[in-house]
Amino acid sequence: MPAPQGQAGPLERVALGLEPRPASLERLLAALDAIDCYHDAPATMRARAAAASRALALAGGEALTNVVRHGAARRPVRVIVEAFAECITLQLRDDGPAFDMFSGPAELPEDPFAEAGRGLFLIRESVDEREYRRVGDENVHTMTVRLRDEHGAR
Amino acid sequence: MTPITETDQAGDGAFHTLTPEGTRLDTANAAQFKDAAVRRLKPGERAIVNLSGLRFLDSSGIGALVGIARHLGSVGELRLVAPDPEVRAVLSITRIDQILTVVDDHARAAA
To answer: Given an 8 Å threshold on Cβ–Cβ distance, is A119 in contact with B58?
Structure first.
């Protein structure tokens, strides 16, 4: 995927194909855990990268769950993680019918005891940028977390 | 893999303590965890879920916890104990900590 505006290419890139099923979440989390390009960076940068990786694990996992629940992907879901000096991005590409999961409401359920309906809210709260594009026969959902001191509720 | 272990049997009015297996409660295992908990618990009972071993909780895991609380009903109670900072942040962002009691240690949870 192209580098975010004004940035050089990624320091590290990981691409994998995941079967659209819940058990695939483990591989997505492992890919984020394996980011190693900040290893020699100062401690503050390593902490920022670790926080960004955790935020993307949550958001990416929720997005993958959404793709799986939609249930229309025929090919494996392509996951691309790119680590930059300023941010980390996670992209999911699936070949299901056009579907922008970021376009709808992303609020908590009205019933606080509802057993579902928090995934899109967690994505919104976890990442700095969400982008959807339809490219060829693929839905391309990209989530970006900038590297800074604090991540979490915004 | 058994999705749950039960470390205490509740006496009259006491708490069952349930501990999820593994370090994640997410879309891959949340339904199993909830089903196992509901099989062990009766409506009106009180239970603690020990979250100390968890490093990852997603919306499916939250759904499982809320589902157990719903099963116990308004007479029963579900408390969550010892979440690590990441798990606690998810509980806070989703405001689950406003509807379920979250405490840092087991002794306080069962008090």
So the answer is: yes
